């Protein structure tokens, strides 16, 4: 659309359509890298759920949950000419996970588990997912992406997940939201020295990095994505935060950029790739993803390899 409508107004969009997105963007991005991926979120029995199930099957993603009565939720994405996007979300069956099904997920040491911040906002899902994530077995690497609603996650829900978190990945806006919500709920992370401290032009401040760092255990790695500039990485408490660069591209649609980054990152970590190299690969994958319209635009492993070597 040419611009967002004003309150109470309307705007004529250039086009529109229905595609599978949301958490699918992440699992599809990981699967396209050759990872063995399974989904532990409920999928509905209505028309939207059928679309989701078909899309997951096409990507080779296993669904661990039984079909849930009702339909999968819907996200309205408003896309502007510069590639920026705005969302309106309605919650479906994915907002009502079953504790018994999560408890049956066969997570084992060496696995990577991704948790979305949306699951920590939905009223029925938040306590269930928080308790499950906090109790994951030792040796399972937990990757948390708080997402656009980071500032709306209740501290009682977020705290246990942050305390168990192995990799916290978020964009600069979300880092500012979490930094402002830090308060007294900090763990033992401490301040972050920076190697070439990010300035205002880098879209994230050293103070925000330090505040987010202080919310997680010292062993947790913190990633702050800054678009075409790449990603700031603090591997552990006391280690300098370093910016891992990306490769600038012409953005067509940034809807699934963060999801592609997280999915590719998780796949690389699962394959045993060291964190800095995994972040570098995720940066390039996200840079390639924004050149394509749609939400689930994470590249295949072959496409990403070719882009990295170009």
From TrEMBL:
InterPro entries: PfkB_dom (IPR011611), Ribokinase-like (IPR029056). SUPFAM superfamilies: Ribokinase-like. The keyword Ion transport does not apply. It comes from the Bacteria. Keywords: Kinase, Transferase. Residues 21-297 form the Carbohydrate kinase PfkB domain. The keyword Amino-acid biosynthesis does not apply. GO terms for molecular function: kinase activity. GO terms for cellular component: cytosol. PANTHER family: RIBOKINASE, SUGAR KINASE. This is Sugar kinase. It comes from Georgenia yuyongxinii.
């Amino acid at each position: 659309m040419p611009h967002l409508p004003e309150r109470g107004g309307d705007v004529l969009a250039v086009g529109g359509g229905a595609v599978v997105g949301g958490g699918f963007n992440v699992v599809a991005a990981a699967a396209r890298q050759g990872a063995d991926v399974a989904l532990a979120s409920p999928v509905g029995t209505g028309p939207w759920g059928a679309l989701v199930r078909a899309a997951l099957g096409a990507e080779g993603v296993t669904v661990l949950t039984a079909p849930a009565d009702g339909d999968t939720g819907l996200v309205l994405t408003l896309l502007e000419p510069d590639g920026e996007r705005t969302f309106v979300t309605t919650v479906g069956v994915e907002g009502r996970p079953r504790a018994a099904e999560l408890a049956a997920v066969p997570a084992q040491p060496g696995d990577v588990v991704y948790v979305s911040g949306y699951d920590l906002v939905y009223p029925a899902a938040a306590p269930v997912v928080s308790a499950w994530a906090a109790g994951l077995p030792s040796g399972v690497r937990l990757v948390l992406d708080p997402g656009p609603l980071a500032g709306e996650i209740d501290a009682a829900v977020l705290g246990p997940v942050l305390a168990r978190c192995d990799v916290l990945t978020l964009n600069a806006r979300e880092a500012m939201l979490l930094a402002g919500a830090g308060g007294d709920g900090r763990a033992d992370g401490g301040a972050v020295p920076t190697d070439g401290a990010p300035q205002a032009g880098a879209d994230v401040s050293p103070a925000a990095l330090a505040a987010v760092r202080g919310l997680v255990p010292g062993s947790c790695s913190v990633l702050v994505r800054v678009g075409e500039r790449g990603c700031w990485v603090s591997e552990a408490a006391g280690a300098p935060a370093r910016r891992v660069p990306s490769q600038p591209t012409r953005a067509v649609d940034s809807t699934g950029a963060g999801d592609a980054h997280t999915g590719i990152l998780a796949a690389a970590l699962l394959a045993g790739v060291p964190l800095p190299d995994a972040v570098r690969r995720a940066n390039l994958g996200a840079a390639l993803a924004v050149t394509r319209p749609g939400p689930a635009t994470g590249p295949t492993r072959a496409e990403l390899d070719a882009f990295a070597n170009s």
